[in-house]
Design brief:
90 residues, mainly alpha, two-stranded antiparallel ribbon, RT_dom
Length: 90
């Protein structure tokens, strides 16, 4: 795995090489940090269905994402269990 700094330096080097060769360079930067933590389960299932995922496979995704709960443990104390309605388990 490369650090962010190393990756940026490599991209910078590639850009300079392309410009030196007379090429135009377009760059798009996307911040996808925590993107999977924010996906609402119901919208994900609708999108899967829209893209042709249906039947038992869609049901499997639905059962995988529904009825999930989490709680926080800190120093031997536990919060209440709360439903997880967004985020993609990884």
């Amino acid at each position: 795995d490369k650090s962010t700094t190393t990756q940026l330096l490599e991209v910078y080097h590639d850009i300079l090489d392309s410009l030196a060769s007379g090429n135009e360079v377009d760059v798009i930067y996307l911040d996808l940090s925590k993107a999977f933590d924010k996906v609402p389960h119901n919208l994900l299932l609708l999108k899967l269905k829209h893209h042709g995922i249906n039947g038992s496979l869609l049901s499997w995704f639905g059962s995988y994402l529904t009825d999930r709960y989490q709680r926080v443990a800190l120093d031997g104390s536990f919060s209440d269990w709360l439903p997880v309605t967004s985020g993609v388990p990884q």
